[in-house]
Amino acid sequence: MLDYPENDAQANGRRRPMRIMLLGADGLLGTAVQETAATHPHVQQLTALGHSDLDITRPEQVNAAIEKTRPDAVINTAALMPADRCDEVPAEAYAVNALGPRYISRACASVGATPVFVTTDFVYDGTATVPYQPGTLPRPLLTYGVTKLAGEHETRLGSDRHLVVRTSCLFGPRPRSPRARDSFVDRALDRATAGGDLTVVDNVITTPTYTMDLAAMVLELLVSGAESGTYQAVNQGIGSWFDLCLAALTEKGLGARVSPTQEQSFTAAARPLYTPLVCTLPEPALAYSRPWRAALTEYLKVRRGAAPQGLESRPS
User: Fold this and answer.
1) Residue 104 in contact with residue 111, Cβ under 8 Å?
2) Fold classified for 18-302
3) In contact, 230 and 164? CB cutoff 8 Å
4) 216-254 b/e with 16+ CB inside 10 Å = b?
5) pLDDT at 10 > cutoff 60
6) Is pLDDT above 50 for 104?
7) In 3D, which of 93, 208, 103 has the Cα closest to residue 200?
8) Is the dihedral of CA 110, 229, 78, 142 positive or negative?
9) Bridge partners of 229?
10) Does residue 306 surpass a pLDDT of 80?
11) Preceding amide of 173 cis, omega within 30
């Protein structure tokens, strides 16, 4: 359960009720933003639009929706992924991950709204030895990271007032749309519950992040009037995909066998292997960044099951 800083007089002095438009509302993060906004004391109105409601690659649709609603902010959680899919259809990836943010940012500027672009740790090349700061020079290796980095640039260019939010390795409540992809944690648990064994990469190190915490961080940035800029919003601590999988299965008491493997066993494409992020949020948004293992424990207490789905050993 999220507690909002109602008694923080200084913070509350900067707060105001906000009308927010959410794009990509049917996805993993979009679902969490909807749930979090529903109880947020400073979200006056949330207009949640999925792909069937608005195609962000169509500027006329973006302009019409934002002009009609005239929100205070537009949170863009829409993205083309997983990473392998982007390599297969680079033009489509660029349209969704880069041109969409361009249209959104420009439309926001025309009505005085703040565009919020949620982006990825894949903008980094994974060669660091310590967690990444937002000032580190991006060097994406894959089409997904290249197009998301382009989306960051388009967001900044389109509107002087903007928030670019990098995050990574999301888990949380299942997406509302049956077409959207469950998180790696849910797919792993579904397979283990069905009696299957798992083989999971242990040399890809990241920052597991709970979508409900991330949603609270993003909303707090908005309602507290955070300065325009690039932020990193993640839970605390680092871990491999193997660590995350094993922690989830152990927490649920599942006895499935989990075998570690190496990333290069699955693809010839260069993928970033070490992309933990330093959480760089200002207070009070930083208060929602807790250790990822604690966040995972909370999620698993409320998680609902589902029919088994396929699980790739190399998560997206």
Assistant:
1) no
2) Rossmann fold (3.40.50)
3) yes
4) bbbbbbbbbebeeebbbbbbbbbbbbbbbbbbbbebeee
5) no
6) yes
7) 208
8) positive
9) 163
10) no
11) no
